[in-house]
Design a protein that fits this description.
binds iron/sulfur cluster; two-stranded antiparallel sheet; ten-stranded mixed β-sheet; alpha/beta
């Protein structure tokens, strides 16, 4: 087979026969999201949303269900509404489920809610007493109370944008952010950095200079996962010179990661890199797994990976490929297509094809599944529910059995997004297919930062790093850092692993020595690297929304990302860090 896979194109698998199974998965997931939103709001979330208003405590319950009415219409296809609500059978909540189903708008829902309690016997539960209290505030005038509730609800401005509009807004912001890259202010900033003294001016470059380097052939992905950090991506480079990128990356590291969305269409560049970079011994590539249409296509890609390794000259250091495949409850989410059929965004079956294929190509090609942390990670549920269980079933259908070799917890406790309780979570899993006991497959999980589309997700869906952010904001030292290792783009940009918006120049024009010197000298990226809270102060010198940034941050990485997104702010921070350093020296 020729070593060129640009011909592999992901296909949408026909899942018509799986509709019943997909319906169950879809409803289970939606019910979980719905329930978790109700729990969050009744446990104080709604009071927080309503804010500083009179009678907020008494209003919280009805507003939670007004929210629920809108949530259902915002997130769920109409035809599944009654099926979802059918599972909530508690007699005392039945009238609410009916109202959620039948009311045509907010007014009608509120009217029905008030009428229900007026028409009910006895003292009733707390919600009834709250409603009567609210009525008494409005002189027992039902219409006045309804109007007030509708006004407050509209003032909250929730669900006012469809996902389509929200994503379009985010895409615009991202486009502007990339447009700001290497703009006048960024160039001024880099000039300032260039004038600083290099702490290690004579430091030579060798293959161990960096633990790793990233290569971004292009940014792009045809998928639209809800947890994706990117909506808009820079256009494909016009005249890329991959050999130059390989040549310079080969000088600084032995460990490379190809990334940039889904790289299925850029596999030939990856193969070329394997054959071009003598010093590199680990070639990692991140794919979304959508290429694995069937076993034949899957094998073709593995074969090509192995062939690229085999084509390295025999006197070069031994190398291998680390094939990283995204695999989580969002990449594999069950969604509705435009014809109203259910399908998995990227079918589990495709990941099963990859897992089944991988052992034959080990150790030249090693497989790692990259997973996102959810409430399931806090217990054995990770194996019995969700996407891992679906993978085990899919492999089981073809006669394979998974054996778990070991699991490893996260280095610190985290908060379960569903229960709000702190606990240990399963971060890493080592497993094998029983048929290939010597071939380990690794699954590692990480959190989802609230950038891009992920900013529109609900609180209960993924694990957040609020606690870690609080530690950082209190000035406490944490083990994590902001990764400032370098990513080299085919379009010339050099950015950071944790910040594709911070650019250290154009490697084609500036040359590697200048870029590496900037990496050593740049006070901004070193402040970021250690989450220096001084940056908050500097940000607040020219922007007034630091509180908003803190309140909407999902963790320290996202927070520090968010306060450095504008070139004007980056320039200001750099100037101030330089002047502070001069003052202290
Ligand atoms: S999360 Fe991965 S597969 Fe999904 S849209 Fe983003 S890059 Fe594509």
């Amino acid at each position: 087979m020729a070593s060129n896979s640009s011909t592999i194109s992901p296909l949408i698998l026909d899942q018509k026969e799986d509709q019943e199974l997909l319906r169950q998965i879809y409803l289970t997931n939606m019910r979980q999201r719905f329930k978790s939103e109700i729990n969050r709001l009744t446990k104080g979330g709604m009071q927080k949303l309503i804010g500083n208003k009179p009678y907020v405590k008494e209003m919280s319950f009805i507003f939670t269900y007004i929210y629920a009415w809108h949530w259902l219409r915002h997130n769920l296809n109409d035809r599944y509404r009654d099926q979802l609500l059918d599972a909530f059978k508690a007699p005392e909540r039945r009238f609410l489920m009916q109202l959620l189903l039948k009311s045509k708008n907010t007014n009608e829902f509120i009217d029905g809610y008030i009428d229900h309690w007026i028409g009910s016997d006895g003292d009733g539960p707390k919600q009834k007493r709250e409603l009567f209290f609210l009525l008494s505030v409005f002189e027992n005038n039902k219409q006045k109370l309804t109007e007030e509730l509708v006004n407050i609800w509209e003032g909250l401005n929730l669900f006012s944008r469809t996902y389509k509009i929200a994503y379009a807004d985010i895409a615009r912001e991202e486009k502007d952010r990339y447009g700001d890259m290497l703009s006048e202010k960024d160039l001024e900033r880099l000039d300032l950095v260039d004038q600083l003294q290099d702490p290690k001016p004579n430091s030579g470059i060798d293959k161990s200079s960096f633990e790793k380097a990233g290569i971004i052939p292009a940014m792009g992905c045809p998928q639209t996962c809800r947890h994706c950090m990117f909506v808009w991506r820079p256009l494909k480079p016009k005249d890329p010179e991959p050999e130059k990128v390989f040549n310079l990356v080969n000088k600084i590291t032995t460990n490379v990661l190809f990334t940039g969305g889904d790289l299925t269409k850029h596999m030939s560049s990856f193969y070329e890199s394997i054959k071009a970079m003598r010093n590199v011994t680990t070639f990692a590539i991140l794919l979304n797994g959508d290429f694995a249409n069937d076993m034949q296509t899957t094998q073709k890609l593995f074969y090509e990976l192995e062939a690229a390794i085999d084509q390295r000259p025999s006197d070069w250091p031994e190398a291998n490929v680390l094939l990283q495949i995204s695999f989580d409850d969002f990449h594999q989410e069950v969604i509705l297509d435009k014809n109203g059929n259910l399908r998995e965004r990227i079918p589990v079956k495709k990941v099963a094809n990859i897992v089944e294929c991988a052992p034959t190509y080990y150790p030249k090609v090693q497989l790692a599944l990259l997973h996102k942390q959810t409430s399931l990670n806090f217990s054995m549920d990770i194996f019995n529910k969700g996407v891992f269980a679906r993978l085990a079933n899919s492999l089981g259908d073809r006669g394979h059995q998974i054996k778990i070799l070991s699991t490893a917890p996260s280095s610190r406790e985290k908060v379960n997004p569903l229960t709000g309780e702190k606990g240990s979570l399963i971060k890493d899993i080592h497993f094998v297919l029983v048929k290939y006991p010597e071939v380990p497959i690794f699954l590692t999980s990480s959190t989802v930062d609230s950038y891009g589309r992920a900013a529109e997700m609900e609180e209960g869906e993924v694990v957040k790093e609020y606690e870690l952010l609080n530690e950082v904001l209190k000035g406490k030292a944490i083990k994590e850092n902001f990764d400032i290792d370098l990513m080299f783009w085919f379009n010339g940009w050099v950015t950071l692993f944790n910040a594709v918006h911070i650019c250290l120049g154009d490697h084609y024009k500036d040359g590697i020595n200048k870029i590496l010197s900037r990496q050593r000298k740049d006070p901004l990226i070193h402040a970021l690297n250690k989450f220096d809270i001084k940056l908050m102060e500097l940000y607040s010198e020219i922007r007034s929304d630091i509180e908003e940034k803190i309140n909407s941050a999902s963790g320290p990485h996202q927070f520090f990302h968010s306060i450095t997104e504008e070139s004007e702010v980056r320039l200001h921070m750099t100037k101030r860090l330089i002047s502070l350093r001069e003052k202290n020296s």
